[in-house]
Amino acid sequence: MSGYKLQGEVFPNNSNQSGCSNYDLEVLDLSYNNFSDKLPSWLGKYKKLKYLALNSNSFSCPILHSLGELVNLILLDLSSNRFHGVIPRSIGQLQNIDTLDLSSNFFTGVIPQSLGKLEKTTFMSLARTISHLDRWTAMKSLQTLCLSNNQINGSIPENLDEVIPKLQYLALDNNHINGSIPTSLCKLKALASLDISSNKLSGRIPDCWGNGPMEDIDLSSNN
């Protein structure tokens, strides 16, 4: 039911879901509609769900902690809504998740360290969530990480190549990151795109990307 501009509540909480009484649904795509209000409390009961796409709606509520019980999820896309509150630590229980997109929402607080438990995740976007990053956590399979347009400060870790060794795309633009550009970025052998523009970085620019796979670098609007 993607792209039909449907609106209102997805289902009232007291609705009869007789067609899905066994909660055996594997794919739920309600993206690009005009759904609003809260997520239904029964959503966490669909334990067999593998793909949940609710992006590009007008949901305005905290993320349900019960979404962390959907342990078979491969894709979770809640981007471009009005979700608020904190990102629940329970998201770190989604051990099979490959793609996690929570971008363009209105979260508060820090990005939970429990996301470091997502060992199979290859794509993660938390851009434009107005969140803080307390500490970088190890994500050994991650290839794409987008944290643009947040409130992240501090420096880029010196051991980023050990923390996220398979990174191909890294976007940290429009934050408050300071310090120098670490040589750990040079050690990311698969890194092809790097955007750390519009921060407070200073010092020398490493001369180390000439022979690697790097295709796009944006270091503009720093110190």
* Helix segment tally: 1
Reported for the largest beta sheet, the result is: 9 strands, parallel
On the 0-100 scale, what is the average pLDDT? 90
**Radius of gyration over C-alpha positions, nearest whole angstrom:** 19 Å
Q: How many strand segments?
A: 18
Q: Which class do the helix and strand fractions yield? A: mainly beta
Q: What portion of the residues fall into strands of 2 or more residues? A: 15-25%
Low-confidence stretches: 1-6
Question: How would you describe this structure to a colleague?
Answer:
By secondary structure, the chain is an all-beta fold. The chain contains one helix and 18 strands. The protein has a nine-stranded parallel beta sheet, with no helix packed on it. The radius of gyration is 19 Å and the shape is elongated. Mean pLDDT is 90; it is low at 1-6.
Summarize the structure.
Keywords: Glycoprotein, Membrane, Repeat, Signal. It is built from one helix and 18 strands.
Sequence-ordered SSE layout with sheet pairings:
Layout: E1 7-8, E2 27-29, E3 34-35, E4 51-53, E5 75-77, E6 84-85, E7 99-101, E8 106-107, E9 110-111, E10 123-125, E11 132-133, E12 144-146, E13 153-154, H1 160-163, E14 169-171, E15 176-179, E16 193-195, E17 200-201, E18 216-218
Pfam family, one: LRR_9
InterPro entries: Leu-rich_rpt (IPR001611), LRR_dom_sf (IPR032675)
Main location: membrane
